[in-house]
Amino acid sequence: MQMKTRLYIIAAMSENRVIGINNSLPWHLPDEWAHFRKVTAGKAFIMGRKSFEAPDALHSEHRNVIITARPPAHAEPHTEYAGDIPEAIALLSGETDVFILGGASIFQQMLPLADRMYLTIVHAQVEGDAFFPAFKPDDWQLASSEFHGTDEDHAYSFSMNLYVRKQPE
Length: 169
Known about the structure:
This protein is α/β, with parallel strands linked by helices. It has helices at residues 30-40, 49-53, 85-91, 104-110, and strands at residues 6-14, 18-20, 44-48, 63-67, 79-82, 97-100, 116-122, 130-131, 140-148, 158-165. This is Dihydrofolate reductase.
């Protein structure tokens, strides 16, 4: 029997839902990146082309599936291309845990399919042009939250939250 692939959204957003500006993150939070690397180590990623090509993009050492209408002639190592989300999920059907890295439209489409959200809340209102989609808090249970204050390496405080989808009653 094949195991179901679990889909996990991982993102950081400001209090006003911003996740990016000009295809980059609007903040630099080294401890949040360390958390990201720890959580996603050895796992497969799904992301849109612009997220994959962003200057500060994080790529999986394991497998990256990029959703794009125009795949390049030559794929980078550990990288595969899919025309849409069902194709991306099918490519990764042998994986147990798959992380969704965005961007905004990918998050929007994957939200109903996700089992968990690793959602860091950056405690600030920032300017941006990409936003995390609204979601129903009633659909999710906050399983853990770790607060990180400001310091010389972190201009903003943030909370690294893990939300687990509630099972239907």
